[in-house]
Amino acid sequence: MAKYQIVLIRHGESQWNVDNKFTGWHDVPLSTKGEQESHDAGKVLKANGYKFDQAYTSVLKRAIKTCWNTLEELDLMWIPVTRSWKLNERHYGALQGLNKQDTVAKYGIDQVMVWRRSYAIPPPALDESSEYYPGNDPKYADVPKDELPLTESLATTKLRVVPYWNDVIVPSIKEGKKIVIVAHGNSLRALVQHLDNISEDTITGLNIPTGVPLVYDLDENFVPVAHELAIAPLSGHYVGNQDEIRARIAGVAAQTKA
Length: 258
Ligand SMILES: O=C(O)[C@@H](CO)OP(=O)(O)O
What we know:
This protein is of the alpha/beta class. It has helices spanning about 15-20, 30-45, 60-75, 100-105, 110-115, 155-175, 185-195, 200-205, 240-255, and strands spanning about 5-10, 55, 80-85, 180-185, 215-220, 225, 235-240. The model has no long low-confidence stretch (mean pLDDT about 95).
C-alpha cells in the first residue's frame, strides 16, 4: 500500500545537451527547448492535479530554472526551495566540456560507455588547475575542499545523493510534506537505483529523459510500489505521452553511438 508520493524531474534540455558535451558540474543554462520542456513538466503536473509543499534541487542553474518554471506553471513559486550540491549532476572529471561523439571517435565506444554508464569506474579526474575545478567556484566556498570531487562514478555519486535523501528529504516526507526533486540524469539514476534496489548491471542501461516528471509511490518503509505504467527497471511512472517519453529515453542513449 502506498503511503507517500514523490515526484522527480530531470532538468530540461541544457545548452550542452544540444552541443552534445559532457556537462557534469559545469553550470550551463537551459536551451530554448529545455525552457519549454520545463514549463510543459509543470503543465502536465497541474493537469493531473499534483501539488507540492517543498522542492529540492541542485546548485546548478539548469535544475534551478527547471524547478522555477515547473513551480510557476503550478502557481507554487512561493513554496520553499532547498538547493544542495549533493543533488548536483555526477562530476564528469576531465571529460567535462568534451563533445561526446568526438570522445567516441578518440577512445572508442566501449571506453566511453564505461565512463558514461559503468557503475563504479569514474572518468579520468580533473586537474586542480582546470577551469572546471569546483574549488575555485563560489558556489562551493562552504564545502570542505576534500569533499569536492574531481571525478565521480555512479557509485561515488550515490555516496552523497543517498545520505542527502535519507537525512534531509525523507524526514520532510515523514512530516507530511509533498515534495518534488528537480535534479540531473545521473544524480537521479543514483537515487532511483537506491529506491528500486536496481543491480549494478541493470543500472548501466537506464537513461532518464529531460523535463519529464517521474512519480514514485512509496510504502511506509519507503519501498516503491510499482505503477502499471512503470518502465522497467523503474517502479515509478513518467507522466505524459508514453510513446514520446520512450523516444526521449532512446534519445539520451543515442548521445554516444558506435
Ligand atoms: O553530460 C552529463 O553531465 C550527463 C547528462 O547530460 O550526460 P550523460 O547522459 O552522458 O551521463
